[in-house]
Structures are given as structure tokens and as C-alpha cells.
Amino acid sequence: MTLDIRAKVFCDKGPVISGGFSDDHVQGTGLIRTRGEIVLNGLVNLRPGDRIRLGYEKNGRTVRIPRALRVLSSFADPFRRQTTVSMGCKLTMLETLRENKQQLAAEDEENAGIPCEEYGKIPINISFASIAATCIAALGLTLRGNLGLVGSVAIESFDYSAGYVQILSDILYSQSKVGYLDADEQLVVVDLSKTDGRAPVLDEDDVIDVSPIRSGDYPPAVVLVEYSYNRLKEPDPDELDNEEERQKRDW
Fold it and tell me: pTM here?
């Protein structure tokens, strides 16, 4: 969904001066992540992970941006009285989350019926559904609907050190699926293979591109002054002595 830059954008943390955010490109990934930056009027105390809600005015009513966004970082400028907020969805916030964790094949529910004495004698697989479920649980996500994953990998244990977001994205991509977080921060998965080619797989409410935002102006009562400073340092005694001698000679 692309918003007109003349649209009035609202934020629950303060008036929006400018900014922009968008989804990742759909092709080549299994998870669409949202990221961007906005500038708020005033000094706002925000912490990483805080939820930030955005909406825009459409036909006289306020419509919520179909994404659950969180604060990645923020910087408050006391001279301009503005707060710059870097934000993204939970997938963006946790994309570097990784652990040195191993999942054994015996921990897969689909292998519950295999006797223990058979382990090591026959190939035991770990299903993609089990790996994806571990990633979703580690990321603290709620799934809306079903993943619909099929297949497995013949391996005694699976290593999650590559990162939960990256692993989940690779699994979805390998099965022609793409996922994103909706406004309620639920994971929505779309099967790209189930289409007849006569209708879009993702409509305008699925993928967003809001850039740039220019919904407000700088407050007219605030005068912006460029400023700089030079740090003072203690004078060198040798330099002072040389300066005094030079002045005596000049006299």
C-alpha cells in the first residue's frame, strides 16, 4: 500500500514531521520485514522494543497502518526539540537473534512413534514444520492460520546458530511461501504457488510502502540555529613563556 505523501499521518507518540518506512522486497525472501524512520515533534522518551502505532486520514476517517511496529532506537535533539525514531516490525528487531542450540531428531513430534533402539540404525528425519515451530516460539510470534509446510531433512540434529528469522525465512522461501506480521503482530503466511495467475497473490493491504511522509511542518515559534563548539584546552606553559618574551621584544 503506497500512501500519498500529502496524506495526514498520525502517531500515538506525537505529531509526525517527516519520515518514511516500507516492507522488504517480496522476491528472494520468505519473510517480509518492515523498517523505516520518522521524526516526531517534541522530546519523546522511547525505549527499544516499545510499540509505536501509526495511522493516516482517509475519506475523513483515520485508518491504522497494517503493521505492528516497534522502536529500534531513538534520538532526542533538545536544540530542535525533535525526536528521530528508527522503527521496524518484530522480525526486523529480532533478525539477529541466534543461539547455539541443537534440536535432536528424537525431539520432533513426528518421530514419537519410533523406538529408541532404532535411532542410529535407520535415517531419522526432522520435519520442516518442527524447525519452523521452534523458530516461531523462540521469536515469540503468534501464527495466524497454518504454515502448511511439508517435507523433512535427514539429519540427526539441527543447528539454530544461523538465526531464527533467517532459518524461518529460508524454509518459507524453499516452499514458495512468504510471511509478514499484520497489525496485531501475528504471522501471516501466503502460499505463492496457489494462484491461477489471474489475480494478485498479495494485494495492496498486504505489502506497504510509506515513503516519504511529510505530514507536518516545523513549529513556526521555534527558531533553528546552526551551532558548533570547540573544546577548550589548557594552554601549554612553554608556549605562554615564548609569547611573553616575544611581546617584550616587540615593546
Answer: 0.71
